[in-house]
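[Automated response] Your request has been received and processed.

Submitted sequence:
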Amino acid sequence: MDESLFSKTELNVFKLIRYTFQERELTAEECAEFDWKEVYDELLNHAIAAVPIESASAIADERFFESWLNVAACILSLNSTICDGETELEELLEKNGIPMGILKGLAAAKNYPKPLYRSLGDVDFIVNETDFDRTYKLMIDSGYRLAYDEDNTDYHLTFEKNGVMFELHREPAGILKGEYGDIIRDLFRNVCGEAEKCEVEGYTFRLLPRLQNGLVLLLHIVKHIDDGLGLRQLCDWMGFVKNELNNEVWNNEFQPVLKKAGLENLACVVTKLCKIYLGLSDEISWCDDADEKTCDELMRYVMDCGNFGKKNDSNIRNTMILGHTNDRNIFSLIANFQRAGCDRWKAAQRFKVLRCLAWAYIPVMYLARLIGGKRSLAETKEKLDNLSKRKSLQDKLAIYR
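Generated structure:
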């Protein structure tokens, strides 16, 4: 670990996560120099504020710890509401003979020491492609309403009912279009019939087979490499590896698939990162050949981003426009500018004839702000440097390559 890359607070956050997953409590002496407010704020930025609450019970400031407990209680209450909604949905689909599987959510939380301290957010679930249209109609007829336009994405639709969001997937997020993606996509075709009932804290849900469940968590990391990878995604993966992905399972089940799909190096780097920073057991040795410097760079990127880019939203938006993990050439860059221009140029939204020029909107606006003094050359250079570093990191991760 290159400790020089991280602040004292960030190192304390890593220590707290290590203790949490090792189910140990910090002693008063071990955390005597912690700035607990800063540690809490960092955990909040990564959407894992409640996860280490029991390991942090040695906090000397009882009033601060009590307020932290209240936040954890709110997360537990919200998770309970989400789980109740999930149970209702599963009963509806089971009654109508539609097999399904949970993506992330409880399927990830089950690997945490205290599962319901892991914030759930919404209910992501997958059905077989042959059942997708029928599930859509059934949900609409049963009081679920579309939260966004039907063409929001090509792989899922979002519904809302009783304050809970539900994402109906035909495939997990993060799968690349093309040859590499098709290798993974085939593994999820008709997989829901193989999902098994699993119980967490009194809640029953449908768990996908081990390979597909692990792939969902790794694909979640892939999806958020561009728009803000946080500690929650790393903790999800680490919990799965700790409980499910030993050396034998890796060699026989995961490595052959991930190598063909272009995700082997990413899995090794993220897992070794978890060993270095977050306390994953040394018994997991299948990742040991991963480059340690790349692990350091990835963790620095994670700490700069926060959950979904919460800590550096402006920089994430800019780098998303200029380049994505899977971009290869100038045509990809123009496509990114075109999408961003259509999203931000109100005139193009009103007049279709202007949409063919939308790709020029972002460069022209940025240049205008630079000339007008609203953007400085130093700020522009910093953003380009950040983009260069991120591109370098992406090359080292070799995602889908």
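Summary generated for your ticket: Strands lie at 100-103, 123-127, 145-146, 156-161, 164-169, 196-200, 203-207. The chain has 16 helices and seven strands.
If you did not submit this request, please reply to this message.
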